[in-house]
Amino acid sequence: xxxxxxxxxxxxxxxxxxxxxxxxxxxxxxxxxxxxxxxxxxxxxxxxxxxxxxxxxxxxxxxxxxxxxxxxxxxxxxxxxxxxxxxxxxxxxxxxxxxxxxxxxxxxxxxxxxxxxxxxxxxxxxxxxxxxxxxxxxxxxxxxxxxxxxxxxxxxxxxxxxxxxxxxxxxxxxxxxxxxxxxxxxxxxxxxxxxxxxxxxxxxxxxxxxxxxxxxxxxxxxxxxxxxxxxxxxxxxxxxxxxxxxxxxxxxxxxxxxxxxxxxxxxxxxxxxxxxxxxxxxxxxxxxxxxxxxxxxxxxxxxxxxxxxxxxxxxxxxxxxxxxxxxxxxxxxxxxxxxxxxxxxxxxxxxxxxxxxxxxxxxxxxxxxxxxxxxxxxxxxxxxxxxxxxxxxxxxxxxxxxxxxxxxxxxxxxxxxxxxxxxxxxxxxxxxxxxxxxxxxxxxxxxxxxxxxxxxxxxxxxxxxxxxxxxxxxxxxxxxxxxxxxxxxxxxxxxxxxxxxxxxxxxxxxxxxxxxxxxxxxxxxxxxxxxxxxxxxxxxxxxxxxxxxxxxxxxxxxxxxxxxxxxxxxxxxxxxxxxxxxxxxxxxxxx
Length: 591
What we know:
The structure is a single chain. The chain has 3 domains: 9-218, Response regulator (Rossmann fold, 3-Layer(aba) Sandwich); 239-256 and 272-389, no CATH class; 410-591, no CATH class. 44% of the residues lie in helices and 12% in strands. The protein has 25 helices and 18 strands. The strands form 6 sheets. The chain has a 6-stranded parallel sheet with strand order 2-1-3-4-5-6, with helices on both faces. Strand 1, helix 1 and strand 2 (40-44) form a beta-alpha-beta unit. Helix 11 runs parallel beside helix 12 (300-316) and helix 16 packs parallel to helix 20 (472-488). It is globular.
């Protein structure tokens, strides 16, 4: 009689995740467990949802149901009906398929990897269905999203759905709430590389806050993507794998929660990161890597080591050269950032460097503690341009101190950088959503000191006493104006649909609270599109900005053709979303 030892742990990734690369979290934990002598397997349930949907377009439609609060209030014991408005049959197929695989594998432990709040509804549905079917299974949960409040920005609305289904609400984060309801047995908050081993050894308490300071990153085994069907991901142009070189951040930007999640910045040597990339290339044949770090160049010493190692490898192996993308900070100009630095950055395969510019205003960035000026960004992008180093620029408007002139500075930067979009140096940009206010960030901790008022339980109901005109209505107006500017200039924008839909949901779901907090909306002026800059008849864009856009378009007609050609054959989410813009603008005007 043969006997097969049960799998120690099945680690699953949950919708909704990016389709462009496999999830790293489960693959990292699998490597840790196997290195410690345990058996582990990973499954990506996000890709199972894509497979059931049959197409990306259908996936994005269904995705909306997983990311947002359902508006119907139905007293049903079926969690699909209770928590989702639409696509019930497909979502039920998804959860049935997930549970079938779990029951078939019969792991000692099922671990749910919750990357962000966008995976909360999927996790809740899976857990509720396991309980409803009375399946005996030890379950743990971890991931950054486990420490967020249920459904993030829509928490105050979503918790009523949870109460209606599960009963009294414990007023705790998502992972702790699931534990209070008895839906999970163990909860790992923080970095789980060591805690996951303690868990399968039966040497972990029911809840642990893992500390990155206790982890030697160079002792963590290389990530193991062996269980994933890598050909199934919707790679942009070529396959890409995520790896992690550091945790935390050297900066403490006032709006950011990274210092809360990782109080101490930890990194491994650049040589070690390069060795992992070479290992994964040899194993999977993938030559491009996404560094998931908050910053790839947080430690200038480690970054120099990294670029030197990869530049040397790429020079010696031109037919096996590697490329990488990641989040990158602009630093103040200094002798260290010389020609050799940028030449080496190019030779290392660096491309698609994502830079959080945030604002075109020095005054705003100074208050944010970004530690660089507009002149530093101008200089760096000019150096990138000389060498063909591609970058992605991230913006968001309406930081609490943002004046109208600060806003115009951002619009001006977008106009000035159009030439870099035309030659491909700026591959794409995001306009983001207006500033949202979150607990325990540096700005939260000084809010009383600077006169920033906020309402508990909401990230949009805030107001700076010294800048009272920046109401939520004004924030939406400014975001729409930036949309009009970028649409007029044909700039390559990304992530517009989810950003605009999030603002639409905020106005639709929280309209009464917004009106109570800010008072009645002042009339918002619309103007004709005097120069036929956009597909829209009427604009929120003031006439002086329309004139600036018109002058740029008239004087640089060749750039328009070049921008459109840059993205003609590229498989990415760059597009002009007219429907979401129109819906949000009309909702704002009608309130």
